[in-house]
Amino acid sequence: MKSFLERRDRWGNGYSLWLMVGVVFALPLMIWSLKQLRMENDVAGWLPSDDPQSKILAWYQNLFPEEDRVLVSWDDCTLTDPR
Predict the structure, then answer these.
(1) What percentage of the chain carries pLDDT values higher than 90?
(2) What is the domain partition of the chain in residue ranges?
(3) What is the pLDDT of residue 49?
């Protein structure tokens, strides 16, 4: 029994040719779809507004309004920790 890519259609073309034709037609659609994809990865959207961590995040965003941030935390840390 021949493998899928070795088989021929009724016109004598291999199925691998039809597979490549399908990829060539699908590729522009995939590229266009990926360009239209927008990712909104906002940490504030992950937390409910009444969550204590959300309030800390709002405090932090008011204190440091820049968009480029690094937020470092550790277990048992508090807002009054002098470190």
Answers:
(1) 18
(2) 4-36
(3) 81
DSSP-derived letter for residue 5 is G
This prediction has a pTM of 0.41
Cα–Cα dist 67/78, whole Å:
23
pLDDT band at 5 (very low <50, low <70, confident <90, very high): low
Structure tokens at 41: 């990865």
Q: Output the average pLDDT for the chain.
A: 82
Between CA 20 and CA 32 the distance in angstroms is 19
Contacts of 15 (CB under 8 A, 6+ apart): 4, 5, 7, 8, 9
Tokens 């992950």 belong to 46
Sign of CA dihedral 18, 19, 25, 26: positive
C-alpha–C-alpha distance, residues 56 and 40, integer Å: 21
